[in-house]
Amino acid sequence: MSFPSEKELWQRFELAEVAVYFATADKKSRYYGFGVADEIFSRDIHEIATWAAGKNYPVFGGMPFDDQLHATTMMNGYFLQPKVLYDIAEQHLWGYETNVVTNRSKRRRPEIERVVDETNWVQRVQHTIDAMQSDGTKQKVVLGRQRQVTLSEPLDMAKLIADLQMTQPHNYHFVLKRGNDIFISATPERLVKINDGHLATAGVAGTARRGQDEIEDLQLAATLLNDPKNLQEHAIVVNRIVERLAGMAALTVPKGPTIMKNPQVQHLYTPITGQVN
């Protein structure tokens, strides 16, 4: 059996009812999965761990950030073991092969038809400021807001994955598709990796834009590395991670951060490693 090309896998992703794409930041691990060998809808980490323990090849999914219930079922906690899984880096196949689709109808490029932003953003920010001023235990808060965008056409999944690889080459990629629901992520942050008892995580906090040229880029990085506000925020994150993991592993933590560069921004970055007890 000849291994399908990545372009063929992009096209197959476009037409699949259930599919997943995952790649690590260094691209030493890259997977495409299709169909359902098994799946679980849950936000109970113990239930998910028990389900995953019986699997003989990788599973993919995610947990919700909080107890909020979403209209999209997949966003409430979902994990998938694909029926067929391609390991691109190792040229290995798990599961049962089916025909690879090589032809698809050409789509128009989607256009934004409608954008809806949250209207209470300023009030929420003020509420957070008031809470931090009255509660000394709150040192760092990351605020987020939602934007709803209506497109003129469905997303072209083949082009989306190709664009992820071109515009976000050094980030982790994760695309999970189930019917009309799609979760897409491109992030520089890895929560945790454990391999043969060796643990790897990192503190990533403190951000600056990229420069218009190499000289300005280096100047912005130097400013970030010496900025008291960003260094304080970064230290809060690193110290919190170390506190949470101290009882689980003997940790190695550098004295100070370095710079992690991505296409749009650069971050303060401290790798944290250790051996799990």
How does this structure look, described?
It is a single chain. The protein is of the alpha+beta class. It folds into three domains: 6-106 and 154-187, no CATH class; 112-149, no CATH class; 193-276, no CATH class. Helices cover 27% and strands 32% of the residues. It has helices spanning 6-15, 45-53, 121-134, 157-167, 214-225, 228-245; strands at 18-23, 30-34, 38-41, 60-62, 78-81, 84-87, 92-95, 112-117, 147-151, 172-178, 181-187, 193-195, 198-209, 249-252, 258-261, 265-276. The strands form four sheets. A six-stranded antiparallel beta sheet has the order 7-6-2-1-10-11, covered by helices on one side. Strands 12, 13, 14, 15 and 16 form a five-stranded antiparallel beta sheet that branches. The mean pLDDT is 91.
Helix content: 25-40%
The main sheet comes to:
6 strands, antiparallel
Based on CA atoms alone, the radius of gyration comes out at: 21 Å
Secondary structure class reads alpha+beta
Give the mean pLDDT: 91
Strand content: 25-35%
Number of strands: 16
Order of helices and strands: HEEEHEEEEEHEHEEEEHHEEE
The global form is globular
How far apart lie the N and C ends? 43 Å
Main sheet strand line-up: 7-6-2-1-10-11
Provide the low-confidence segments as ranges: none
How many helices in DSSP terms?
Answer: 6
The total number of structural domains is 3
